[in-house]
Amino acid sequence: MTDYARKMSLDLRMIDENAYSDHIDNKASHCAKILNDYYQKYDAQKGTQFVFSDLGTYKPGGDFNVYSEIKRKLVEDYHIPSYKIRFIQECKNEKAKKAMVDAMNRGDIRIIFGSTSMLGTGVNAQQRAVAVHHLDTPWRPSDLEQRNGRAVRKGNLIAKEFADNKVDVIIYAVERSLDSYK
Question: What range defines the domain where residue 26 resides?
């Protein structure tokens, strides 16, 4: 029951992608808009953003996933080049992961999606980070701290020079849902 409630607050299409359609007020729509706002605001500095969700993660193939849905919105609605948006799950080995992290630090990749376990630890891509987005919140507060620590840490050059040494942390929550319980 809890899993069902968590999926519902993320996107009803997580329950049944054929029974429900996209909605202007779902988390994917809100997140895409805010990602674009930060993308445009820090475009000259090549500011980067982290998007975390342990549900609806990217898997190659046909099933609905929230990562691909937000990427679709960013590309189609906001005209962000698709190669600037990546999923950590695309990395099949440590060499590929290191290359993706290096590309984030250069600003070649501007938005990265991942789960707590894959993106929340061992990723030092903080140099250009301007925002961390949480589509869901983990059960353990220490996991939330780990996620935020990907950007809110020493070595963040853009935050130091252009954002008063701050990184914005955005948590998306649905009223009267399991989001407010956690």
Answer: 2-181
